[in-house]
Amino acid sequence: MAELQPIETALDALLAEVMPLAVERVALNDAAGRVLAEPVTATLDVPPFNNSAMDGYALRAVDAGKWLLVSQRVAAGDTAQPLAAGTCARIFTGGQMPPGADCVVMQERVVEKEGEALIPDDVPAGDNVRLQGRDVRQGDLLLNAGERLEAAALGHLAGQGITDVSVRRRPRVALLSTGDEIVDPGTPLEPGQLYNSNRPMLKRLLETFGAEVVQLVSVPDDYAQTVALLNAAAADADVVVSTGGVSVGEEDHVKAALESLGQLDMWKLAIRPGKPLALGRLPRDDGSLARFVGLPGNPVSGFVGAWLFLRPLIGALLDCPSLGSLPRLTATARFATDTGPRQHYMRVALRFTAEGIEAEAFDDQNSAVLSSCIAADALAVIEPHCQVEPGSRVTCLWLVH
């Protein structure tokens, strides 16, 4: 019997010689979730001028505690005039600070009467003023290459007036479901058949990792059709992902088809769930290779395998370091378990308390029980030959996209 391999061995083989995909230019409005391919340097200060943080009155701090003439009104978007000595300006949130003014007092603390304002005496210089360049200075590194463009990053770029950005092309993925017993929802079930739960689950995960799923293919238990469908998938995709079909059964043709077309490595990993894993490469007409990842057919194994293998592969193709590994948290176990020779990835819900992070495991951790993944926040990593009791400290991989 072949020795079980550690997950690190398979990850090294999966990511070996992976090169980032090509760069393309896209409109900022279409760049959500994309990965920046080049660093971006600020060309503007943000904010571009000193402005008021609230509705109130702008003045010189040395004039606090007096009745001051309200000499001008400054709304957001107005150009402020220099502030005359011994006066104040009615100002609104975001309004440009008048030259000479160095603080703002909120309107609720001011009494205004007949064009004059009584200012309280405890208004220090700099109070309620957002200084030019407080957020970003011209010439600063705004965002680095490899940054995923989520909401705040997109706003950061828009604040510079940027309209388009250089990003990595999305990895194109073909998702294959093998087996005559697997049918699509909406089809009446015959005896011995199962609905395809892996397809929508993996499609969604791949998309959240940053990939584009370009093919959804059902592969019948037929060798010739399996060869043809794998060829077609490799021609159109950077990554071919299959569920099931790579064992040694008489009706499992993916293994033989892959070996006839390209390179296949079979792995029996020392992990639970997901012991069987197939990795390979499929040649294309242009001389390049498509990566192949064969996940187990059990839905929980597919779910865990997607986080452990597909996420870092997509990250490598996008040159996105944050996708390379899941954040690790240390939590207090609120469950008991013991492991055999394989490392167990248990689905857990996390609770963040004043005393620290707690991990609560779902009762049924069987690889066919997909309900354990619905509310899972993390995978608790339990080492081989380990006994965990309530109160034990466990490492958790936080499931963030």
From TrEMBL:
Kindly give the Gene3D superfamilies that the UniProt entry links to this protein: MoaB/Mog-like domain, MoeA, C-terminal, domain IV, Molybdopterin biosynthesis moea protein, domain 2, Molybdopterin biosynthesis moea protein, domain 3
Q: Which cofactor does it need?
A: Mg(2+)
The entry's keywords: Magnesium, Metal-binding, Molybdenum, Molybdenum cofactor biosynthesis, Transferase
The keyword Transferase is assigned to this record: yes
Q: Which InterPro entries match?
A: MoaB/Mog-like_dom_sf, MoaB/Mog_dom, MoCF_biosynth_CS, MoeA-like, MoeA_C_domain_IV, MoeA_C_domain_IV_sf, MoeA_linker/N, MoeA_linker/N_sf
Tell me which Pfam families the record gives: MoCF_biosynth (PF00994), MoeA_C (PF03454), MoeA_N (PF03453)
Which segments constitute the MoaB/Mog domain? 174-316
Regions crossing the membrane? none
Q: Which residues form the signal peptide?
A: none
Family matches, as SUPFAM superfamilies: MoeA C-terminal domain-like, MoeA N-terminal region -like, Molybdenum cofactor biosynthesis proteins
The pathway noted for it is: Cofactor biosynthesis; molybdopterin biosynthesis
Task: State its Enzyme Commission number(s).
Answer: 2.10.1.1
* Catalytic reactions on record: adenylyl-molybdopterin + molybdate = Mo-molybdopterin + AMP + H(+)
Its annotated function is as follows: Catalyzes the insertion of molybdate into adenylated molybdopterin with the concomitant release of AMP.
Tell me which family the UniProt entry assigns to this protein: Belongs to the MoeA family.
Q: What is this protein called?
A: Molybdopterin molybdenumtransferase
Q: Which organism is it from?
A: Vreelandella piezotolerans
